[in-house]
Write a structure and sequence with these properties.
- The structure holds three protein chains of three kinds.
- Chain A is of the alpha/beta class.
- Chain A has a single domain, classed as Thiolase/Chalcone synthase (Peroxisomal Thiolase, Chain A, domain 1, 3-Layer(aba) Sandwich), CATH 3.40.47.
- Chain A has helices at about 25-40, 60-70, 85-100, 130-140, 145-160, 170-180, 195-200, 230, 265-280, 300-305, 315-320, 340, 350-360, and strands spanning about 10-15, 50-55, 75-80, 105-110, 205, 210, 220-225, 240-245, 290, 370-375, 380-390.
- The longest helix of chain A is centred in the first third of the chain and has 16 residues, at about 25-40.
- Chain B is mainly β.
- Chain B has a five-stranded antiparallel β-sheet, with no helix packed on it. In chain B, strands 2-1-3 form a three-stranded antiparallel β-sheet, covered by helices on one side.
- The longest helix of chain B is centred in the first third of the chain and has 8 residues, at about 20-30.
- Chain C has one helix at about 20-30, and strands spanning about 35, 45, 60-65, 65-75, 90-95, 100-105, 120-130, 130-140.
- In chain C, the strands form two sheets. Chain C has a five-stranded antiparallel β-sheet, with no helix packed on it. In chain C, strands 2-1-3 form a three-stranded antiparallel β-sheet, covered by helices on one side.
- The chains are: A alpha/beta, B mainly beta, C mainly beta.
- Chains in contact: A-B, A-C.
Chain lengths: ~400, ~140, ~140
């Protein structure tokens, strides 16, 4: 076996509403969401024998199993960073493909807006990871210590190399908010913006504005993954994993890959694209819609370039006026609203929305959305998926 | 215009560990040094234990010319830390040795910074026990 | 023999959250209460959002009989391996409640050389600070 095409299917999904305060613990949201995803699939917690979580998630496997009464786990694993959502789905697909588990739940829960956390952050310098140490030693002393600033440094160089004006980044948030406004689950339901609103948005770290960045939210999401054979007996139309990949390159850092020859691209995402297209045996032209990592809006045109939807340096033109990327265009993106227009759950909503599109249940449904691409982790270690309605 | 610090709120002190100690020792004596592989001569920054090119662990802390150019830059309009008064700029520099580093400019307004601007290192004693390498425009 | 605390060191406070608030509210009022699934009746400790037996999220708080037996115990004798806020030696016990759940706590009145597995115990409430009450256990006559 040299790839996992058609060896796994997503058979259950669930997502809580996005809010500014869930008034619940993250574990509560996790349990609620896993149960709903299993109901969606037609399974029960007794069927589950695998769990995949995001490394930083507060809901440990022990807490999930002892809350939900799962007594037979044969597989548990985790993925890190912004790349986690697609990578977690890949990890689950690998789990069922190899037979180490039969029904794997992927979950993510975060009280990102209210900060109602189960545990306080108790990290001290003695417990810092090597990447934290680099940030605190060589960036923070100069006041370079927010994700906004880290991303803006890369975007400035991208603008310089390709002659881009920062106003042009406004079309991605505008379209994401249009899509989010259609989605009752979104924080921005019925609250679209116009391009002019973006121009008026407050400058946070020049050259980027507030609306270039994700919207913190309290939310949880869960997926259920099994083999295509088992999927046939379940409630929903299976969504097949046709391609899945992760990539980390030389000098990849989380948002601060400043120390390699060119910084005005996302080479990890380019490699992920090559691999998932080859695995799925399709080309960018076959993809009906994409769910890209829009935690940082200006990384969206860069992803379009890296994934081969347009040439290098043309991503901003591709998004100009929004016509090609909104519902009805040639490549609608982030149809649930994404991190900019629905809420930020570190990209899990993008995977869920890809499944909805293939099932035909999106609130911004693309016609015949049989092939959908998901990208996670723009600006750092990356991962991606191609999901399809047919095996 | 240089970075304005709010002395009521101490800025983050870089955690010194074995791998980066030589760098900060250099800064404290007002000398900008980078790691250079003893085996293949490759410069590297930020410091790390191994040469990514030839995988040698042998390195020496080698003085930089202190000269370089602005590679990218940003201006914080909102401060993420009370120790730094916004607005202030952060620059990414490409040094003559080929390595890059993150720093601040001194004696310049944010709108006067541009990509490619030649700079040289100066040393700023920020607080007791904290010296940082900063950069000023040359030419 | 009551546990002695080092006054110079702040004791850790429980992290009260949505799932366990009822428990700590009870302790504050000197009542030991446990979570019970409203749907299937399962008694649960420690508190959690979902019933592990029937997956209901509908929970209520019910009073405990307050009685149990020592299920296992340890004696912290070496300060470097103990919590610095508490003077060694001190006992930590797992008590099996007659209600059917287990709870980790301290012994209130029993010295290390008298404790044994199976010792009958009952709950007492230790008001350690204005904002900190903990359920502890003392010997129970049978």
């Amino acid at each position: 076996m040299n790839n996992i095409k058609n060896r796994a299917a997503i058979v259950g999904i669930s997502m809580t509403k996005f809010s500014k305060d869930s008034e619940r613990t993250e574990l509560y949201l996790t349990c609620q969401c896993i149960k709903a995803a299993l109901d969606d699939a037609g399974l029960t917690p007794d069927d589950v024998d695998g769990l995949v979580k995001q490394t930083d998630d507060a809901s440990d496997e022990h807490a999930v199993t002892s809350s939900m009464g799962m007594g037979n786990l044969t597989y548990f694993g985790e993925s890190r960073w912004g790349a986690a959502p697609s990578a977690m789905a890949m990890r689950a697909a690998m789990g069922v493909a190899t037979g180490v588990a039969n029904y794997i739940v992927v979950y993510r829960s975060v009280n990102g807006a209210s900060k109602r956390r189960m545990t306080p952050s108790m990290r001290t310098s003695g417990q810092m990871s090597t990447s934290d140490l680099l940030q605190w030693t060589f960036h923070a002393p100069f006041g370079h210590m927010s994700n906004a600033g880290r991303v803006a440094m890369i975007v400035r160089r991208y603008m310089h190399e390709f002659g881009i004006n920062n106003d042009q980044f406004g079309w991605v948030p505008t379209v994401c908010r249009e899509h989010g406004a259609r989605n009752a689950n979104s924080m921005f339901y019925q609250k679209p913006i116009a391009f002019e609103d973006y121009l008026k948005s407050k400058m946070i770290v020049e050259p980027l504005r507030r609306m270039d960045f994700y919207e913190e939210a309290d939310a949880a999401a869960a997926l259920v993954v099994t083999t295509p054979e088992r999927a046939k007996d379940l409630k929903q139309r299976p969504v097949y994993v046709l391609g899945a990949a992760q990539h980390m390159a030389l000098e990849t850092e989380e948002l601060t890959s400043y120390y390699r020859p060119s910084i005005s691209g996302l080479p990890e995402m380019g490699k992920v694209g090559e691999k998932i297209f080859a695995m799925a045996g399709v080309t960018p032209k076959d993809i009906k819609c994409v769910q890209l990592d829009d935690s940082y809006g200006p990384f969206v045109p860069m992803q379009l370039e890296e994934l081969g939807f347009c040439n290098q340096g043309e991503g901003v033109d591709f998004c100009n006026r929004g016509d090609r990327i909104r519902l009805g265009g040639e490549l609608p993106l982030n149809t649930s609203g994404g991190s900019l227009g629905e809420g930020h759950i570190h990209g899990m909503n993008h995977v869920i929305e890809a499944v909805r599109q293939i099932r035909g249940t999106s609130t911004a449904q693309v016609k015949d959305a049989e092939l959908v691409l998901v990208a996670s982790g723009a600006g750092g270690p990356a991962s991606g998926l191609i999901l399809g309605g047919k095996s | 215009m240089s970075m304005v610090y709010d002395t009521e709120h101490p800025v983050p002190i870089p955690p010194i560990i074995w791998d980066n100690m030589g760098y900060w020792e250099g800064i404290n004596r007002h000398e900008l040094v980078f790691q250079r592989c003893k085996e293949c001569g490759t410069w590297r920054h930020p410091p790390r234990p191994v040469c990514p090119k030839c995988r040698s662990f042998e390195k020496e802390w080698t003085p930089s010319t202190g000269k370089g150019a602005v590679y990218s830059w940003v201006t914080y309009q909102e401060s993420p830390h009370p120790g730094f008064k916004a607005p202030y700029s952060v620059v990414l520099l490409e040094m003559e040795e080929g390595v890059r580093l993150v720093s601040n400019m001194v004696d310049i307004k944010p709108e006067e910074i541009s990509i490619g601007m030649p700079v040289e290192v100066v040393f700023e004693d920020i607080a007791e026990g904290l010296t940082l390498p900063k950069f000023r425009k040359v030419g | 023999m009551v546990m002695e605390y080092n006054p110079g060191i702040q004791l850790l406070r429980p992290r009260v959250d949505f799932d366990n608030q009822g428990y700590w509210d009870g302790i504050k009022q000197h009542k030991l209460i446990f979570q019970k699934c409203k749907y299937c009746g399962l008694l649960i400790h420690r508190p959690r959002p979902m019933c592990p037996r029937c997956n209901s999220m509908d929970m209520e708080w019910v009073p405990s009989m307050g009685k149990g037996t020592v299920y296992s115990w340890v004696n912290f004798v070496y300060a470097n391996a103990a919590y610095p806020g508490i003077k060694v030696p001190y006992l930590v016990v797992v008590v099996e409640m007659l209600d059917g759940v287990r709870i980790v706590s301290n012994m209130y009145d029993v010295p290390p050389d008298e404790i044994y597995v199976g010792m009958p115990v009952e709950v007492v409430f230790d008001d350690i600070a204005d904002d900190l009450t903990l359920p502890k256990f003392k010997r129970r006559e049978v």
